[in-house]
Amino acid sequence: MNANEYRTPGEVLGWASEYVAGGGTYVWNQKVCASVVGIARITPAAATAEDQKPTIEVIREKERGPVPEPGTVVTAKITKLMPRQAAAAIVCVGPKAVREKFTGIIRQQDVRATEIDKVDMPTSFRPGDIVRAEVISLGDSRAYYLSTAKNELGVVSATSDAGAAMVPVSWQEMQCPITGQREPRKVAKVV
Amino acid sequence: MLQSKSFVKKTRHGKVLKVVREHYLRDDIACGTISCTVCDNSKACLSSSSGQIIVFDTNVALHQIGLLENAAVSNVVVLSLVLEEVKNKNIGVYNRLRTICSNPSRNFFVFSNENHRETYIKGLAGESPNDRNDRAIRVASKWYHAHLGPTSKIVLVTDDAENRRRALAEGIVALSVHEYVQTLGNAELLDLIIRTGSEEAQTTGDAEDLRPSKRKVIYPEHKLMSEITSGLHKGIYHQGKLRVNRYNGFEATVSSESIGEEILIQGRMDMNRAFDGDVVAVELLPEDQWQANSLGKIAEDADEDDNEEAVGLVPDVAEAVTDTVAAGRAGRPRGRVIGIIKRNWRQYCGSLDPMLNSGGAGGFVHALFSAADRRIPRIRIQTRQFANLVNKRIIVAVDAWDRTMRYPAGHYVSTIGDIGDRDTESEVILLENDVNNKPFSKQVLDCLPPLPWSLAAEELQNPNRRDLRHIRVFSVDPPGCRDIDDALHCTLRPDGNYEVGVHIADVTNFVLPDTPLDEEASKRGTSVYLVERRIDMLPKPLTEDICSLRADVERLTFSVIWEMTPEAEILSTQFTKAIIKSCAAMSYAEAQARMDDSRLSDPLTVDLRNMNRLAKIMRKRRIDRGALTLASPEVKFEIDSETHDPLDVGMYQIREANQMIEEFMLAANVSVAEKIFGHFSQFSMLRRHPVPTPKMLEPLLLTAAAVAVDLDISSSKALADSLDRAVGGDPYFNKLIRILATRCMTQALYFSSGDLPPPEFHHYGLASPIYTHFTSPIRRYADVVVHRLLAAALGLIKLPAGLRDKALLTTVADNLNYRHRNAQMASRASVELHTLIFFKNRPTDTEARIVRIKSNGLIVFVPKFGIEGPVYLTGKKDTKDESDWIVDEQSQTTVSRDGKYRYKVLDKLVIHIEVVEPQPNRPKLQLTLVEQPNA
Amino acid sequence: MDFISPEGLRLDGRRPLELRQLQAEIGVVEKADGSATFEMGNTKVIAVVYGPREVQSRSQQQHDQALVRCEYSMASFSTGDRRRRGKGDRRATELSLVIRQTMEAAILTNLLPRSQIDIFVQVLQADGGTRACCINAATLALADAGIPMRDIVASCAAGYLNSTPILDLNYLEDSGGGPDLTVALFPKLDKVSLLQMDSKIPLDVFEKVMNLASEGAKAVAQFIREKLMENTKQLVLAKGR
């Protein structure tokens, strides 16, 4: 069995007695076979493992689009504002743009870390704002739960009534460069 | 796995559909020359060294197929493009061309130029398909030239001058057909060339001015196909097959489904160049021109003097129905042909009409050809060898029939032999009926078991084969019969019942499926019995020796064994393969004599008597069920053993012994039919006899009513009973009525059981719900099929693939029906021929019966010789003058105007039979009235 | 009708044991998880795979394996005469089922419990052998989607005309009235996953035709593997590694 070769499903990679079947493989009739298209990789067993067989896996070259997972930081666009929560469309997971639509919800209590019972949604976000948020859970069947309750999370880009990109002036306010008008936001601290 | 290297999509425009088909081009197509080192030459047959290689275009194939069939033409490349075009234009020519190509001795090679990467060409913009094809042919010729090198000689043969010009410009040798044949240096071949269009004017020159502009238009124009189609659609025109009256070449009927009855076409103009069997489009004439004179004349169209009715044998069954019906009705629709949808041209046998001025020897003459088949008009041919051909029977093919031509134009194909020579005339009969008379090929003969054949030991060991050699088996056949395919036994069992066995030659043990032998037999379909010889379906060693159940030899059989009560009730039926040893091969007369001789009481005679008793009961039961006892005037010639000339002629005598054998054969057939149908409901080969339609029985009823006999045709039973009651003044009367009834019956047919619903299986004549043929496998292929089906039903063999294919079985059945009909026609024609020979030196006076009244004569039947023909009452020429005779259609009587003579249907009269020769070498029978009864 | 000339060529110029030209393209629908078009001569099929994804209706969810669904349809422009061919007719329902069962046998469904895999197959151009072509397209799309499979499934049809077994019938040959036998198999495992024929043929002939179809399917499998490798290589190149 040669490593770093292209493999297609069904191809035999080696004996199950010699290898541990890793990702993208399965065992059939004591043989390890590929189950996806990709490059075969052999990883020697970790020194600590009791089974000293190397692991064989087939790694797909074509990647799926990123999926938000709890703990990851995502970039989202506010789509709808409600009294107790804001809906957002996730556009990026970490640095990667998503390939399909995921919706997230920022609940009132997740907007900021302090005085969470005094949060007023309209003074935190406006539809169209781009926010950075953390996925806190998979949420319900419709949306992920997002949180901006950290200093570096919150609105990163917003547009004023006049149509200009505003600049943050404090962690609670942003200012329009044209009219000079200030608008309230939960602003992310630029790191 | 060969993949095509490149491919081109070929688009074909249908009516509305755009069909896209892939067209793979290849580079593994061989050129077919033996010396070629590049191509795979395993199938090669062309020699590039020994002279020229011929390439021809589609029109050459279409028009000069007769020439191509001549052995002088060889070393030919047939382009797949040409084959394809020929196939689309004329499937008959295509098949002939294919036959030539498959004959290895002819050196015709099929080159798939359309699939070859280098010879495939795309049509250019603005180029017509014809031009494109011509170019493809030139490209292929050029490719051959390039492929085989500069020494090769490729000749493109085409009659298209433009194509020739372009070919020459491209450096290809191109010749016209005429030029090409001249290079062969065989003058006889020039006769085979068919002249078309421009070539004709050049080669015949001033022999006769045939240029269209100067010719008179004789026939009305055929309508365009598009007009016909729309006319048919609107119901203005009617489509159907043209059937020319056997007795009158210028009267025909078209049975059209759209109008539901037959349309009468009368006269040369209205027939408008249609041949018998052509599918035509017909337009109805105004009703006031419909035929009022329902009786019709025996022959019309006085300018065609050889078209009067001929004396012939009595038709067996209703194949002459069209003209018998024609006589029956008043006001039948009349029509005229306005277009021919499908030609039914084939090659015709016949002879040239003698000419006073036969032209110079070797020069071209135009001669008229009369076909042996009277339904075919005369054909005009050109020949250089008139003097040679005038006294010969020749074969001629039809090429064209223009509006300006009185007769269709044809060309000479080959010579059969001298006119009047019996062998030649028999050959004509066989050719006309499409009977294959050629000796069996080597491949076929190779399938035979080695001779002398004897029972192999392993057959005795075969558990599926019962040893019946100890049983007293015997056969009864016509005298001199050598292909004995059935034998019987009948033994009394201890319990008082009888065991009756019918043993049929086990032909399928020797004729195995999908062998050349089987294919040949399937093509021939049946043995053909002529008066002086027999054309076998299977090679002689099989028919006369290995399969023939002769006396005192061990033979293999397929047997049906019944247990019967003394009342002939079948208690059980067994089918088995068996071995028998016949103890006696008797003739009918011998068997009858034994039964009648009360002094004899040997076991064989007792068996015969027992059998006869059972047969009589079975027969009675069958007749009670409604089976018809029909009669046909079969005649038997006594043939001189040396000259093969007929010495005497008489009616075939039917004895009790014949009926006995017949009865058991019928029973065996029915038993087998039930068995195979039980196993193979979808592909059993059965035989049915359709119920005659009331229309078909009309002439019978008319005749019967005229002689005050009441016939009930509501069922076969009713008809049988009323036929029994029809007793006239003399003993022959009843038989005559039966003969007339037989003639109105439909033909029994083979069919595949999957094609029809079970109620249609009915056999009318035998009043049996199911029937097949099992008992004569030596001489009928249907029986071979049935043997295989039965063996498969018993689990003895696996059903051959061919029999499991419903469509294939249907084609087999159709072919068998066709062959069977042709065999009957050939037999009849042979009897007619011998009747003629018989009467040649024996002018005879004999008694005849009137079977039909016509406006200018009577059709009479001569019981003694089984012939039927016209007797003219009026002078033949002055057909206009019919007033001397008054015809009463209702009572089928004709009375002379002065009341002196009176003829009624079925009346007896005396006629004189003699052979006359109105033209040299054209002998025919003539019947004339001798006595004037009831004056 | 003569489907094979005495010279041994079929109507379109192939020999009896030859496949039509095969073509395939992977990743033709960006949005989908996997997609492919597959062409056998003039028969062209597109297959699109979504999944594994959450089961849409809870009641269908299977706790131990993935739910595979398949929808077959025929584009109304796929044949010469434009006819409305929905996904609701009997033929489509049957084909959907056949394709689903064939692919389900290949997918390692136990690895993806509580999920759903949707396969959409549409005939873009029909010229005989659509069944086989659909299965081949679906295999490619599944492989593209990265759904774990036992083996690739390759399919091919064969028939019996003019007493000759012939491979990969086109429409004209398909309507010739002979048997039309479609085989789908796992080439590496050497197992048959689909065998369909709706006419009767003798057993000995059947064996010949079946063997021919299997040989054809193996050739198709070889082609599919090559296509998958080629696609993977291109992805690697695109990544610039």
Task: Describe, in short, the structure shown.
With 935 residues, chain B is an alpha+beta fold.
Task: Please describe what this structure looks like.
The complex is a heterotrimer of chains A (191), B (935) and C (241). Chain A is an all-beta fold and 191 residues long. Chain A has 2 domains: 54 residues, OB fold (Dihydrolipoamide Acetyltransferase, E2P) (Beta Barrel), CATH 2.40.50; 112 residues, OB fold (Dihydrolipoamide Acetyltransferase, E2P) (Beta Barrel). Chain A is 0% helix and 42% strand. Chain A contains no helices and 16 strands. In chain A, strand 11 and strand 12 form a beta hairpin. The model of chain A has no long low-confidence stretch (mean pLDDT 87). With 935 residues, chain B is α+β, with helices and mostly antiparallel strands. Chain B folds into 5 domains: 179 residues, Rossmann fold; 118 residues, OB fold (Dihydrolipoamide Acetyltransferase, E2P) (Beta Barrel); 74 residues, OB fold (Dihydrolipoamide Acetyltransferase, E2P) (Beta Barrel); 298 residues, no CATH class; 87 residues, OB fold (Dihydrolipoamide Acetyltransferase, E2P), CATH 2.40.50.140. Chain B is built from 27 helices and 38 strands. In chain B, helix 20 crosses helix 21 and helix 21 packs across helix 25. Chain B is globular and about 95 Å long. In chain B, 42% of the residues are buried. Helices cover 31% and strands 29% of the residues of chain C. Chain C is built from 4 helices and 9 strands. Chain C starts with 21 loop residues before the first strand and ends with a helix. Chains in contact: A-C, B-C. The interface between B and C is medium-sized, with 28 and 26 residues.
